[in-house]
Amino acid sequence: MNIRESIDPTRTAAWQRLEALAPDLRERHLRELFADEPGRGPAWTLEAAGLRADFSKQRVTHEVMAALLSLADDCEVLARRDAMFEGQHINVTEDRSVLHTALRLPPGPALDVDGVNVVAEVNDVLERMGGFARRVRNGDWTGASGRRIRNVINIGIGGSDLGPAMAYIALKFYSDRAMTFRFVSNVDPTDISEAIRDLDPAETLFIVASKTFGTQETLTNAKAARQWVVDALGEDAVEKHFVAVSTNAERVSAFGIDTANMFGFWDWVGGRYSMDSAIGLSTMIAVGPDRFREMLNGFHAMDEHFRHADPSSNIPLRMGLVAVWNRDFLGIHTNAVLPYAQFLSRFPAYLQQLTMESNGKSVRLDGARVDYDTGAIYWGEPGTNGQHSFYQLLHQGTEIVACDFILFAQALEPVFDMQDMLAANALAQAAVLAFGRTAEEVRAEGVPEALVPHKVMPGNRPSTFILAARLDPHALGALIALYEHSVFVQGAVWGIDSFDQWGVELGKAMANSILPDLQDADRPLDRDSSTNDLIRAYQAMHATT
Ligand code: F6P
């Protein structure tokens, strides 16, 4: 296999086969699939790394699955997977390895990448992070005036924010409740202002997290935070109140943070794949190094499964292939992520970056334009709240939305039988989406004829149901790795580079060029008429504040 070469999936025999199968599946109802296959539930359920994934409510048959596995073969998905794990430069457009899986390798056998043993490097950084996290947690690391650190504020954006912010909430149950953790990302000045307004700088530690250390929002927020600390405690306080997480030591130093207080990572960790690198420092301070290691072990368990399990029982492979099937053959554009776990409230937002920044591409590795659909739109909210908001459209709207239900069997904080209620709701929603309710069934309930069409539930709306025992660090790691690898599988089938993000660069460059225009009302404008007009309107309103 040549990793730079992309295969047009539509030209494979498997794609043709899937196109031939699709019309039938577009017509067939999940009711029929369940009637035709007694025991379909368990037959389509796979287990690994403590997760149980039930694909039975996806609109697939064994014939479709066999063709999808052939598609994976034709597109060399597993060879690409192996190339990723070995550290080959599968991020073709940036000529980089893609090795987030190395972040969770246990100390042990070397993995040499471009002449460097990355396992040793990863574990060195983890050791340093562990030492630092322990000192902050036990009060050995104090602020400049000798006060204990009680507040940690992570400043970052995108992958340098969404992962840590999501993980802090997800693992809050295990966190040091005597400490406050906040996450500042937006260049909207209210974000930093609100984060610090009730805090004492003498007790506050900032983690400036940026892979490149060149991101405008992060550096501006960090500058504001620095000002706040310096105003209260003096210039010398900076070294006790700021640490950095980055791949760029020069820029960290230029910003004024001592590189002795910097935790590094590597260009082979993509921003959206970095929450288990040093970018997870806030997570480690919150839950402690041992729990952080348990999370890494969860990631690693799913990595091992993805790497070694037979294709027929490989959960990320199946999840990725089903996503391709939904997108390209059933015409489903969007995927809702519905965690029935309030602590996973930021998980959909985290997945938005993971999935859409990875697979929102329309050219293949060789630059050829695709003529098939790639990455779906991911979004979501925890259940049961979403049920009282957007589920109406999921059940009866004209847009078919594929859904991922995520449920844990054990309550972290049991109250009455609330966990059972939560579970009952998740199970009910998945069943109603799949099987619906026919007009005959509605009539049989004595519903007046005029209301019958309104009460019919079409069903046949596909979902995957992920169940685990308990939301703990291991389960969180396994769940994230599952999505990471599913995204990989989809990108490999589509022949795109899931690890670059060129599409976000132009907007950043243009924002930089608009800023001086906004700040000088006398500058002549030569942009499009809409942007020119908005600039002038903004200036007029801004001047009155
Ligand atoms: O704008 C997109 C992006 O490059 C993401 O991929 C990344 O996670 C984010 O910006 C933040 O980048 P950095 O960690 O370098 O500040």
Distance N to C terminus? 61 Å
* DSSP, total strands: 13
From the spread of the alpha carbons, the general shape counts as globular
Strand content: 5-15%
What's the helix count? 22
* Uncertain residue segments: none
The major sheet is characterized as: 6 strands, mixed
- Order of strands across the biggest sheet? 1-2-13-12-10-11
The set of bound ligands, ions and cofactors reads: 6-O-phosphono-beta-D-fructofuranose
Structural class of the helix and strand makeup? Answer: alpha/beta
| Mean pLDDT across all amino acids | 97
Rg, Å, rounded: 25 Å
Helix content: 40-55%
Can you put this structure into words, describing what you see?
The chain is an alpha/beta fold and 545 residues long. The chain is built from 22 helices and 13 strands. Strand 5, helix 7 and strand 6 form a beta-alpha-beta unit. The longest helix is centred in the last third of the chain and has 22 residues. It is globular. The model has no long low-confidence stretch (mean pLDDT 97). The site of 6-O-phosphono-beta-D-fructofuranose has 14 residues, from loops.
